[in-house]
Amino acid sequence: MHRRTFLKGVAGSSIIGSQGAWAENSETQSKLALGYDNFAVRAMKWKAPQLIKYAAELKCDTLFITDFGPLEKMTDSYLKDIRRQGEDVGIQILLGSWSICPSSVKFRDTWGSADEHLQLGIRAAAALGSPAFRVVLGAGDDRKTEGGIEARIADTVKVLKRNRTRCLDSGIKIAMENHAGDMHTLELRGLIEEAGPDFVGANFDSGNAVWTMEDPVQALENIGKYVITTSLRDSAVWESENGVTVQWTAMGEGNTDLKTFFARFAELCPDVAVNIETISGFNRELQVKKDDFWKAWPKGKPEGYDKFLALAKSGSPRKAGPVDQKEDISKSIAYCRKELGLGRR
Length: 345
Prior knowledge:
Blueprint: E1 34-37, H1 48-57, E2 62-65, H2 76-88, E3 92-99, H3 114-128, E4 132-136, H4 148-162, H5 164-170, E5 173-177, H6 185-195, E6 200-204, H7 206-211, H8 216-223, E7 227-230, E8 234-240, E9 243-249, H9 258-268, E10 274-276, E11 283-286, H10 305-313, H11 325-340
Parallel strand pairs: 1-2, 1-10, 2-3, 3-4, 4-5, 5-6, 6-7
Antiparallel strand pairs: 8-9, 9-11
């Protein structure tokens, strides 16, 4: 029997495998585990077994299934079978889903109320052997709703606190993501501390941090001690007519300082798997030179804004265009392994 178990709680995961064996104190065990987020290959519309097969082909350590779509059933027996399929090829499966903020513009009742959605995810994560369940608050438009992002954070914290005992009893932590421009990492840190770091941590998305005007390296400094799961990508950032334009890229093709980022990641999050989520092919301009842009930021420029502008000054314009998702994630995993020394295989 081949198993992967996540051993450490708040800091994240330490993976030990019996297939392709890494001894607990071996050199490979000290390396950061490497995997991919299924959203990177969303166009393939693969179900869980196909995602596992592809993770094995890429020699990944983890597979992060960040929505329920690839799961054909939500029964414990089915989920445990998917878990066994992963274990048989040495893949640790992590689970996630979407908004649990009932007042978010992105909340949908597909899985019931916010509490019911969260509870389903906790149960499913336990059956899959995932130590965490990733969720989001919403998106950047939530910053413009009544009460602003602070009100949406407060509503999310209420949902989390109502389910604290359930999380603690099940041993599942909730990984809140900085998602699509909703929360700056300092705001996410505040949410985690208000809800309770004993059962809530962060799913850190380095690409989304750029959408909230953060240098990914600085964003990691802000949130690193609470990170329990990741959805990471590189970004190209440059000055443009109305402000700063961002294009998410394959790993190594942007101007994020990846060597500094992962050196610091290894210090702050040594037991957390690096899951790559490539979402490439389009440009987004943050129109920081226009007054309307700042209506979503009534407190003004966020902390670290100067580092974000410095990152933009280091970049150059990129054309947008269609991307082959399989090629994008494949070369990103290869880059992480060869150039950054990530992965345990």
